[in-house]
Amino acid sequence: MKKFKFYLIGFIPGLILVFFILNKKGASCSGYLPNSRVIAETLSKEFKYSEEVKNAMAINKIDEKFIKDSIITQGKVDFDRSNAQQKPCPTYIITYPEKNPKYEIGFEKCEETMTVNSLKKLK
């Protein structure tokens, strides 16, 4: 029990110190989660749209900016329905917004490009 008390005496202040140092530097672990990594990699690629998606964009009055800035950036990757291990280009499904999704896109992420293959309005 004595060792445990000594451990806590050092651990708790150390944890608080690290928390405040990392918080001031703006560091966070959010970029390491699978959802964040897929989104960051996707946004760094050249975007292409299938003809089906271009038609759906026109019907639903959605532009490329909305797809990039809202659906992909703030969306949630559905890993259960995605095929992240597919070679050479994994496919993903993103729903937006996270709660009560209204849009769903399916895309293929290759080395140089990202091709949006489907766009659905859910509600």
Average pLDDT:
88
Morphology? elongated
Number of domains: 2
CATH C-level category of the largest domain: Alpha Beta
The helix/strand class is alpha+beta
Distance between the termini: 58 Å
* Cα radius of gyration in angstroms: 20 Å
Tell me the CATH architecture of the largest domain: 2-Layer Sandwich
Q: What fraction strand?
A: 15-25%
How would you summarize this macromolecular structure in one to three sentences?
By secondary structure, the protein is of the alpha+beta class.
Entry keywords:
alpha+beta, YaeB-like fold, 2 domains, 5-stranded mixed beta sheet, 4 helices, 44% helix, 23% strand, elongated, transmembrane, DUF4258 domain-containing protein, membrane
Describe this protein's structure.
With 123 residues, the protein is α+β, with helices and mostly antiparallel strands. The chain folds into 2 domains: 1-30; 33-121, YaeB-like fold (2-Layer Sandwich), CATH 3.30.2310. Helices cover 44% and strands 23% of the residues. It is built from 4 helices and 5 strands. The chain has helices at residues 2-24, 34-43, 51-60, 64-74; strands at residues 46-49, 76-77, 91-96, 103-109, 113-121. It has a 5-stranded mixed beta sheet. A hairpin with a 6-residue loop joins strand 3 and strand 4.
